[in-house]
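Write out this protein's structure.
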Amino acid sequence: MLEADAAAQSRWAKAASRAEGLTDLGIGGAVRRYFLMYFPFTFLAGLVVGFALASIWPDVAEGFVPSGLYIGSLLSGLGVAVVGWVYGNKKVSRMVRPRRIGVTVGLTDEEVKHIRRQVLTKEPIDVSHISVLRGAAVQIREGLAKQLLFSPGLLIYFAGQFLSRGIQSVIDVVMLVLLVGMVVLLAITSRQFHQTGEFLTSTYPSGSDNPK
């Protein structure tokens, strides 16, 4: 029993060391800037180019809108995914300092699960491990932010393909179910991103970590 307690203390001490000083310098602000500036520009540019290409497509009179939607969603989806990925790695990653390996590396699966549940406000906060919780929250928030930036591109891509075809076969029904699942997953990711921001704000000594 004593050996187990000593091992647990050692794991948490190492985690606390990795978490020391980890700070969210404005991930929320970076995400907002992306969706206010980069996302709409990339999305609209892809659609404009798509419909421009459709206008010179053979037999355009028989399907200008479906062709434009198909090509436009393809370009918009790929563009949003690429720009989101680049922005996440160039801008969002800069909002986390200092750069460290995962805070929870070395902890047991059960310990990691409890940390995540506390950060997402699903369990009461264990104040004895607050430094580890805050460090993990910053890294979790970074990961969620990158998902939020990248995932809409895939959603746009598949949604455009579906809308341009409609439901014509079983494959289209499967695609519709996939799209609904992607929307739900994106909503969950967005909610968890908000929860990590609330956690950092509520646990910051001065009352504000400016994580949003």
